[in-house]
Amino acid sequence: MKYLKQFGIIIFISFIGELMHGMIPLPVPASIYGLVIMLLALVSGVLKLSDVKETAALLIEIMPIMFIPAAVGLMDSWGVIRPRLAAYAVITVVSLVVVMAMAGRATQAVLRWEKRHKGHSIGKQVK
Amino acid sequence: MAGMVADSAYFGVTVSLLSYGIGWFLNKKTGMAVFNPLLISITLTIPALVVGRIDYDVYYSGAKYLSWLLTPATVCLAVPLYEKLALLRSDWKAIFTGIVSGVLSSLLCVLLLSAAFGLGHADYVTFLPKSITTAIGIGVSEELGGHVNLTAAVIIITGVLGNVLAPLICGIFRITEPVAKGIAIGTASHAVGTAKAMEMGETEGAMSSLSIAVSGILTVAGASVFAQFY
Q: Which residues, numbered 48 to 77 in chain B, qualify as contacts with chain A under a Cβ-Cβ cut-off of 8 Å?
């Protein structure tokens, strides 16, 4: 019954997420509403970690394969991409590298600054 | 016979899993990042469908059951995030600074490059949400008058590239803190990149999951402002 219960809870939260997506006029997908609901349920203690843990681990482990169908769908987008392939490719690759570098370096810079300047704050204990 | 094979609801799933398995095997045997299972799966499946004259719609009629799992799987990303909540409490300034820096540099980068290549306004807004999760990105593109199909394609390509290149980019820019790696990967390459972050470690995965939601929501606001600039 363990997996049935866990899967049931996860699917139910996905369903609530879809209802919210349908009712709230914002471009926020059902999955993000669901993620927030799941997090709130865990933080508030409505759900225990043991209520979802194993099934969540399974779904996260096999997550990469869930992107295959959409990625294979690129075969139908080739006609839209081809006319300006070079420009599109440069924008896609350059911005990926810039964003990853900027987000990572900025996070790291603040982390290290805090470590140096507030060595005795709560930040150190949690680590 | 060919019709019978392709019509089975299990055909698309089998092809997807088999090609992913081949990619995984190559990756394990060679240890080379270019043999990324997701990338290998795509580069094997597309030619297989083209050679076998199988329409994407036919493949998708089976493979859609894999996509169906994406919403519950994304919901489950809350679990590792919950397990790392203490980190979010202690490092929230660094985390927030990192995600905001990433979102702003994404919008700015697309603005500068679109101007450099002389793209039209519709093309420009198509690329603005390129770093965020597909479902939010498509909504943003539609709202601003972009080409929704192109946005979806670019988001997927960005995610796959992020998944493949994340270890390399983090290495080059000496991003070594697990929290910083996670924020970098999630902000730049949404859920597809997060799949790689999950493999790197629990902290990387949790921070990457958090970035998907936060950067997605910040981009909704940021893109509508940036759309006025060009």
A: 49-50, 56, 59-60, 63-64, 66-67, 69-77
Both A100 and A45 in one domain: the answer is no
Q: How many CB atoms lie within 10 A of CB B141?
A: 27
pLDDT, one tens digit per residue, over B81-97 is 999 999 999 999 999 99
- Reported as a pLDDT band with limits 50, 70 and 90, residue A124 is very low
Average of per-residue pLDDT across B21-39? 89
Answer whether B45 sits within 8 Å of A72, measured CB to CB.
Answer: yes
Distance from CA of B44 to the nearest CA of A (A): 10
Q: Is residue A76 part of a domain?
A: no
- Whether A86 and A126 map to the same domain: the answer is yes
Query: How many domains is chain A built from?
Result: 2
What is the pLDDT at residue A125? 47
Burial of residue B143 (CB within 10 Å: 0-12, 13-18, 19+) is middle
Selecting from A29, A68, A80 the residue whose C-beta is nearest the C-beta of B20 gives A68
Q: Which structure tokens are listed for B221?
A: 């606001």
Task: Record the pTM.
Answer: 0.87
The reply to whether B213 touches chain A by the CB within 8 Å rule is: yes
Structural contact between residues B68 and B58, judged by C-beta atoms closer than 8 angstroms: no
